[in-house]
Structures are given as structure tokens and as C-alpha cells.
Design a protein that fits this description.
The complex is a heterodimer of chains A (218) and B (103).
Chain A: H1 3-9, H2 21-32, H3 49-70, H4 74-94, H5 98-122, H6 138-160, H7 175-182, H8 187-208, H9 211-217
Helix pairs in contact in A: 3-4, 4-5
Chain B: H1 4-23, H2 27-52, H3 58-88
Helix pairs in contact in B: 1-2, 2-3
């Protein structure tokens, strides 16, 4: 399909619906070099304030994630996970996704990490340093992770070199906008999600009950 | 902001999650690595949502759903880990090799 015709004769105006016209533009950019519409994206050399803040929080997040997967102390690993997820909430804030940042802190830092700490306690994980927290295939894991990172970064740079985020559209991620989208267009998915949560809850209770097996044998 | 910044941070988080998933021995730590990978996906979703300036806000709404599903996943995963610990008295994945070929 000719991308030019898609942009001019497409019935959808820009910024409408999930497959915006900009996607077509960026595909063409990746394939044939910079297009005129995107050539005015600022260079990587003049760093804006939000980019600087993003990089700083991103470095903290990645460092905490690295400490989380390499720490020899299980409880410290869980606490580094708190730092990672909190930093991620900061990244969401820089990306103007306020509601997602708040929910991230409430659910992940408030609930998921506490659940994980409970999990460490019920499996009687030793509190101090442990020498054998890694399996013997650690070198393979390093190779796979580095290869995945290199491949992803190469593909992303090739595809999205000229993509530029506009962070100045007001109210993009405000609770009002997301709430009206969630309870308007996405209300069916929301209801299905609540049923899924109920199923997971019942499933967790059914799996951990002690007396189910005994009743079955009787 | 260039889209590459969030994408590269997200790729880094995902790769760190892959490393943790493959290298860790404790089941709870493996679950934590899965959380890292899910978080990387969420960052991608939010970045692309802001880039496309979607009126339906599909990326951010999907991120909220991924967060809820991650909570459900951790709840169920911990139930399974708890039952495993009761039956096998271990939380190391290396010891759970009943499905492998006999050596």
C-alpha cells in the first residue's frame, strides 16, 4: 500500500483511534530515511529538561533493577524491587501519565511487594546473605540477557530514531481522562478484568486450602 | 522527548528481568523477575500511548489492566509457591525436576 495515499485519503484524521496516521509515517521513516513531516524533530544533542529528568530516574530504576536481580540477600532484593517500581512511577509521571503513576505506587509498591515479602516469609527464606541464590546457568543467563538487550536496542533505534513525544498536550494522563476512557470505551474489558480478579482470588484460596485433599480422600 | 529514551529504559528493564528469570534459584525471586519484565512492557505501553496521543487512551488503560493482572498473577503464584513449599519443603527451582528426563 502506498503510505502517501494512506495519509492523505485516509478517512481517519490524525490523532483519532488506535492506529494513528503517525504510525504509517514512522514506518516509512524507518524504511526510507527521514520524511519531511518528521525531519523537524529536535536533535538528540539539545537535551530538554524532561529528557534529563527521565534519564536520571531511568538510571536509578535500571540500577535498582540490576541490584534486585543480583543481590545475595532475598529481602534486600525485594526492597530493591520497591525502588525499581517507585522509579518506574516517576518515569510515568515524566511521561505525563499521572493516574498510571499513582496506581503503580498503590498496587505494585503497596500490594505486590508486600505479597512477595509474605511469600519469602512463608517459604522460610533465610534473612542473611546466601551463597547459592543463583543457578549454575548464570553465564548463559548473562549471554541471553545481553543478546536480548542488544537486539532490542538495535531494532528500536532503527525503527524509532525520529519519533518524538509531545509532552505538552494537556490532561493526557489525568485521572479524569483515563477514568472516562476506562468507564466509557473500555468498560467491557474492565468488567471482564474484575471477573478475572475474582477467579484468581478463588483460585488462590482453593489452591492453598489444607482440607480439600483430606475431604476428597474421605 | 524522543521516544527512544523510554523505549531503551524499557528494553533494559526487560533484559534485566530475563537475566533474573534464568539465573535465580529461589521461586519468589523468579516471580520478582517476571514483575520486572511486566513493568518494562507497561513502560512501553505508556510511552507509545503518549506518542500516538490516542483519544481512546488504549495504552494507559491497558497499563492499568496489566497492573491488575500482575497483582492477580502474584496472588496465584504465591498460592502455588506456598503449596509447593508444603509438599516439597523447598523453594529452589533446581529441585523441582520431576518432569525432566531421568539422567
Amino acid at each position: 500500500m502506498d503510505p502517501d495515499r494512506a495519509t492523505t485519503s485516509g478517512a481517519r484524521p490524525e490523532r483519532c483511534g488506535w492506529l494513528s496516521v503517525r504510525t504509517t509515517l514512522s514506518m516509512r521513516t524507518a524504511a526510507e530515511g527521514p520524511a519531511d513531516e518528521l525531519a523537524d524533530a529536535p536533535s538528540y544533542l539539545n537535551v530538554t529538561g524532561s529528557e534529563l529528568v527521565f534519564v536520571l530516574i531511568g538510571v536509578i530504576t535500571l540500577g535498582a533493577a540490576l541490584l534486585c536481580v543480583t543481590s545475595r540477600n532475598v529481602v534486600r532484593a525485594a526492597l530493591w524491587l520497591v525502588v525499581t517500581l517507585g522509579g518506574l512511577a516517576g518515569l510515568y509521571l515524566v511521561l505525563t501519565a499521572e493516574l498510571v503513576a499513582i496506581v503503580q505506587i498503590l498496587i505494585y509498591v503497596g500490594a505486590v511487594v508486600v505479597l512477595l515479602l509474605f511469600g519469602l516469609m512463608v517459604t522460610r527464606a533465610p534473612i542473611g546473605r546466601q551463597p547459592d541464590l543463583n543457578t549454575t546457568n548464570r553465564p548463559v543467563a548473562i549471554v541471553v540477557a545481553v543478546a536480548a538487550f542488544g537486539l532490542l536496542v538495535a531494532a528500536l533505534i532503527d525503527a524509532f530514531r525520529f519519533a518524538y513525544l509531545d509532552l505538552h498536550i494537556a490532561g493526557q494522563g489525568s485521572p479524569e481522562t483515563i477514568g472516562s476512557a476506562l468507564f466509557g470505551s473500555w468498560v467491557l474489558a474492565f468488567e471482564v478484568l474484575s471477573v478475572l480478579l475474582l477467579a484468581a482470588l478463588i483460585g488462590a484460596i482453593a489452591v492453598t486450602r489444607r482440607d480439600v485433599g483430606a475431604q476428597g480422600r474421605r | 522527548m524522543h521516544l527512544l529514551y523510554p523505549l531503551i529504559v524499557s528494553a533494559g528493564l526487560f533484559s534485566i528481568g530475563v537475566y533474573g528469570l534464568l539465573a535465580r534459584r529461589n521461586v519468589v525471586l523468579v516471580l520478582m523477575s517476571v514483575e520486572l519484565m511486566l513493568a518494562a512492557v507497561s513502560l512501553n505501553l505508556v510511552a507509545f500511548d503518549v506518542w500516538l496521543a490516542d483519544v481512546l487512551r488504549s495504552g494507559q488503560v491497558l497499563t492499568l489492566m496489566v497492573i491488575a493482572i500482575a497483582a492477580a498473577e502474584v496472588g496465584l503464584g504465591l498460592a502455588i509457591i506456598l503449596q509447593l513449599f508444603r509438599q516439597r519443603a523447598t523453594s529452589a527451582i533446581d529441585d523441582l525436576d520431576t518432569l525432566r528426563e531421568p539422567r
